[in-house]
Amino acid sequence: MLPRTHIMIHHSLTRDGQTVSWGAIRRYHVEHNGWHAIGYHYGVELVGDQYEALLGRSELDAAAACPQQQMNSRALHLCCVGNFDEAPPPTAMLETLVQLVILPAMAEYGIPVERIIGHHDIRPSKTCPGTQFDLEVVRKMSQESIGTLAGAEHWHQAESAGKGPLAGLRRGAPGEPSQQVLAERLGRPVASLAQLESGLVLPTDDLVPGYAKALGIAEHEVLEAFALAAMDYHRQRLAEASAKAGFLHQRRSQRPPRPGRAAA
After folding, report:
1. What is the pLDDT of residue 264?
2. Residue 69: partners with Cβ closer than 8 Å, 6 or more residues away
3. Which residues of 183-221 are buried (b: 16+ CB within 10 A; e: fewer)?
4. How far apart are CA 264 and CA 250, in angstroms?
5. Neighbouring C-beta atoms of residue 248, cutoff 10 Å
6. Is 135 exposed, middle or buried (0-12, 13-18, 19+ CB in 10 A)?
7. What share of the chain is helix, strand, coil (3-state, %, to 5)?
8. Counting C-beta atoms within 10 Å of the first and last residue's C-beta, which end of the chain has fewer, N or C?
9. Residue 99 — very low, low, confident or very high, per pLDDT cuts 50/70/90?
């Protein structure tokens, strides 16, 4: 997984309506631009009478949205369908954006609120995500939803420190070598090993044999540990997404009916 450092918000510069146009954007990016997928990682659009979060390209892939300052790789790219040079985004759209896309991304990547940015922040010639799209509103909503975020990145690192698959292998290896001992065997700085042991990213092919040999285990055990960790990670993400979706649905069901509509 790419080490995301920012969340970048875009708008589609199209008029949103009662039908999904996310598919039309995807088709244009694939058929006209020749890309393998839509350029964004996620989108938010009005589907019927509800705003929905829509999947774009895989988070494992770089975006095709802002190459300046390597932001295609550094940022998670979100597109709000609509033209927000003409009018501000509706509150309901921003609630969906924050609850279903931004908050999970902040928690997963340890991204603090000040790194929620617009395309315009990196490429000033663009108005994206729109002259009437107030990013401060999104930052404030995110802050209120997830709590004080000044230490979000440190919290994320502390939560993952020493809990990766490699750390588990070291603790279960013959003799249970300490981090210091293993670092000496590998000829790596302790800080470098600590970072490796805190992540879910599989070490490069050239590191796996040396790590397995230093621990006295087979190479396939290193690979299996990461496969199991990846399965647990995705089960957790699915559970979190389901819980967030249920919470948001409950909040919507408690809202008063819109003018001209009868309560369900």
Report:
1. 35
2. 122
3. beebebeeeebbebbbbeebbeeeebeebbebbebeeee
4. 13
5. 18
6. middle
7. 50, 10, 40
8. C
9. confident
Question: How does residue 244 score in pLDDT terms, banded at 50, 70 and 90?
Answer: low
- Cβ-contact 202, 167 below 8 angstroms: no
How many angstroms separate the Cα of 122 from the Cα of each of 66, 75, 254? 8, 11, 39
Numbered ranges of CATH 1.10.260.40 in the chain: 161-264
What single-letter amino acid sits at 51?
A: Y
pLDDT digits (tens, 9 = 90+) for 154-184: 444 444 556 778 888 888 889 999 989 998 9
Is 101:9 a contact under the CB 8 Å cutoff? no
Give the chain's mean pLDDT: 81
129 in Cβ contact with 40 (< 8 Å):
no
195-212 per-position pLDDT tens digit: 777 776 666 778 889 889
- pTM for the complete prediction? 0.59
Q: Which CATH class is domain 161-264?
A: mainly alpha
Q: Give CATH 3.40.80.10 domain extents, the chain.
A: 6-148
Which amino acid appears at position 211 of this protein? Y
Whether 150 shows a pLDDT value over 80: the answer reads no
